[in-house]
Amino acid sequence: MLRSQTKLFALGKRQLCRSMSKSCDLTLVEVDDKTGIATLTMNKPPVNSCNLEMMRALKDSMKQIEGNKSRGIILTSSNNKVFSSGLDLNELRNPEQERLVAFWKELQEMWLTLYLSNLPTAAAINGHALAVGCVMASACEYRVMLPGFTIGIHATKFGYVVPPFIVNSYLSVLPRPVVERALLQGKIFSTDEAQQINLIDEVANSKEEALSKCASFIGSFAEANPVARALTKRQLRAEFARTLLDEPEAELKESLEYITSPLFQDSLDAYLAKLKSKNKK
Ligand SMILES: CCCCCCCCCC/C=C/CC(=O)SCCNC(=O)CCNC(=O)[C@H](O)C(C)(C)COP(=O)(O)OP(=O)(O)OC[C@H]1O[C@@H](n2cnc3c(N)ncnc32)[C@H](O)[C@@H]1OP(=O)(O)O
């Protein structure tokens, strides 16, 4: 996804910006002129898996929204069953080194951009949010989820070690003993369970209601000075972002070694085969 492929349109009272790939718009951004709140919609069929281009589109869209002086960001999905299925597993399977490096750097940068955004951030989770899908929702300041879906980081279930910044995503919303158990079990939570442990803040019965609740949360900062708010947020979050801010290369090296190991590749093959066979039955 090249920056030059990102377009900005004036659409009535709203601005619409799209990050485009060859075949579709990977992300859509609409800014509400009345509230100044931007809705960033993930739009990569079929399940918003995060490949290199998708993560670049998300990062670029967030930077554009910040540059447009919006009042906040709501992250959501155009798919009414899946918020995001996490990393695109095809990027990890027998990867070409150069692309894998670019992919993992993009994951680091996308996460930092969202986690440390100057703006208030909220996720309207209108479908399953798995692995990095859950990480993105957890990086936001507020989460509203629709009933009947699932959310969680199940990496250990299929043989993946969880990288430290992903652990930190959970730690910024959940108490440590809960994080430890959830990550070690590879626990996926239902909407109700997620609300009980405060992984999500509210449940909404429709996407519209979820967006409205997210907008109310963002509106709750109306009295706060935006610069003071942003700097305070950065101070509060800097500790959990430290590894990626100070030593992204070390994290990259460790992750690449692990991803390219036979141990990881074998468990990925088995997992992908299981995922594909589901649709052949
Ligand atoms: C010490 C240092 C250690 C460093 C360690 C580094 C290692 C890092 C790796 C660990 C990090 C992991 C983070 C991740 O995000 S991994 C991604 C995990 N995600 C999943 O497991 C989600 C799997 N998907 C599902 O469960 C379901 O698809 C769904 C999201 C519940 C949706 O179900 P639905 O029935 O609607 O859709 P389908 O299952 O039929 O899917 C449609 C097609 O999409 C393909 N698919 C789904 N998810 C992915 C994905 N994440 N990547 C690639 N492809 C995906 C699926 O196979 C279907 O394809 P098909 O149509 O060809 O069959």
Automatic annotation (TrEMBL):
GO cellular component entries: mitochondrial matrix
Catalytic activity: (3Z)-dodecenoyl-CoA = (2E)-dodecenoyl-CoA; (3Z)-decenoyl-CoA = (2E)-decenoyl-CoA; (3Z)-octenoyl-CoA = (2E)-octenoyl-CoA; (2E)-tetradecenoyl-CoA = (3Z)-tetradecenoyl-CoA
Main subcellular location of this protein, as a coarse class: mitochondrion
Positions in coiled-coil regions: none
Keyword Mitochondrion: yes
Gene Ontology BP annotations: fatty acid beta-oxidation
Annotated CDD domains: crotonase-like (cd06558)
UniProtKB keywords: Acetylation, Fatty acid metabolism, Isomerase, Lipid metabolism, Mitochondrion, Transit peptide
Subcellular location: Mitochondrion matrix
Gene Ontology MF, one: delta(3)-delta(2)-enoyl-CoA isomerase activity
Pathway where it operates: Lipid metabolism; fatty acid beta-oxidation
Role according to the record: Key enzyme of fatty acid beta-oxidation. Able to isomerize both 3-cis (3Z) and 3-trans (3E) double bonds into the 2-trans (2E) form in a range of enoyl-CoA species, with a preference for (3Z)-enoyl-CoAs over (3E)-enoyl-CoAs. The catalytic efficiency of this enzyme is not affected by the fatty acyl chain length.
Subunit composition and interactions: Homotrimer.
Record-given protein name: Enoyl-CoA delta isomerase 1, mitochondrial
Encoding gene (name): LOC117565900
